[in-house]
Write a structure and sequence with these properties.
The chain is globular. The protein has three domains: about 5-65; about 75-165, OB fold (Dihydrolipoamide Acetyltransferase, E2P) (Beta Barrel), CATH 2.40.50; about 180-245, Alpha-Beta Plaits, CATH 3.30.70. β2 and β3 (about 45-50) form a beta hairpin. By secondary structure, the chain is α+β, with helices and mostly antiparallel strands. The chain starts with a strand and ends in a 10-residue tail after the last helix. The protein has helices at about 20-25, 55-65, 110-120, 125-135, 165-175, 190-195, 225-235, 245-250; strands at about 5-10, 35-40, 45-50, 80-90, 95-100, 105-110, 140-145, 160, 180-185, 205-210, 215-220, 240-245. It is built from eight helices and twelve strands. A five-stranded mixed beta barrel has the order 4-5-6-8-7. A four-stranded antiparallel beta sheet has the order 10-11-9-12. A three-stranded antiparallel beta sheet has the order 1-3-2.
Length: about 260
């Protein structure tokens, strides 16, 4: 009997679930297991089917690499850490899909005051500014920690904050001092093809996968961001691109990150 899992990877736009079966096969390479993406559930979370001798090993591998959706509210509680996806940037904070959708959608709210405290030393920056500075955009993977027990019936979002790991990652991005392009809505291979075909790879330190359809280009010092935006805008029609600039963050939030920067 096959084992079915809901992994914490969402698809959206023109992509089909089966387009990502090769990525899962590659991840489970070497295991005696057949892996197939058979559809989506909730708001686009991928459903993966495992069949074979090593299906339990594959399950643990997927849980470690991508995370498994809690699905039901009783599977999460105060203190739970979940890698969700931003679904809305609101005036009062970020709304995050945390993979709880049965029997109702339970979303997480990262309030504006929590983001100010964790990322901006409590400065009175509005959500639009924080979203722009830190590339907190729709569909971006975001790890959150629940600060309360979820309601037993459908109601308000559960209150959360950024996890310690998420804050450390942002701090590391600032510390490195290199501009980044956060690209959502297209696959890793589409981004690689667009950059390679334009001759811009010489300006890239590395490419990073943030999710199935979310990627990051780490740029060399002195790179013309405008050139990248023009070229990628033409080649990646379905993509949304946000620029993460450490120097801009250091200027906007004096004292919070200065000690981390080169």
């Amino acid at each position: 009997m096959a084992l079915r899992l809901v992994v914490l990877e969402r698809i959206y736009g023109p992509y089909r679930p089966e387009d990502f079966t090769p990525a899962f096969l590659s991840l489970c390479q070497g295991l005696e297991v057949d892996v197939k993406v058979i559809g989506t559930t909730g708001r686009g979370w991928l459903v993966v089917e495992l069949r074979g001798e090593d299906e339990e090993v594959a399950r643990r591998l997927l849980e470690g690499e991508m995370g498994l959706a809690p699905v039901r509210p009783e599977e999460v509680g105060k203190g739970s850490v979940i890698r969700g996806r931003i679904i809305s940037v609101k005036e009062d904070g970020l709304l995050v899909d945390i993979g709880v959708f049965e029997p109702y959608n339970l979303d997480a709210l990262v309030p504006l005051d929590a983001l100010r405290c964790q990322l901006a030393n409590g400065l009175d920056l509005d959500m639009e500014v924080l979203s722009s500075l830190f590339c907190l955009v729709e569909n971006l993977p975001l790890e959150v920690k629940l600060l309360e027990e979820p309601l037993s019936v459908e109601g308000e979002p559960v209150r959360t904050e950024l996890s310690e790991g998420q804050v450390r990652e942002i701090e590391e991005w600032v510390r490195l001092g290199l501009d980044r392009l956060i690209i959502t809505g297209v696959s890793y291979h589409a981004v690689k093809k667009a950059v390679g075909g334009s001759g811009l790879f010489r300006h890239v330190v590395r490419m990073e996968r943030l999710g199935i359809l979310e990627n990051c280009l780490v740029l060399k010092l002195g790179t013309s961001i405008g050139q990248f935006l023009r070229v990628l805008g033409r080649r990646l029609k379905n993509a949304e691109i946000c620029v993460f600039r450490p120097r801009k963050i250091l200027k906007a939030v004096p004292g919070r990150y200065t000690r981390l920067a080169f």
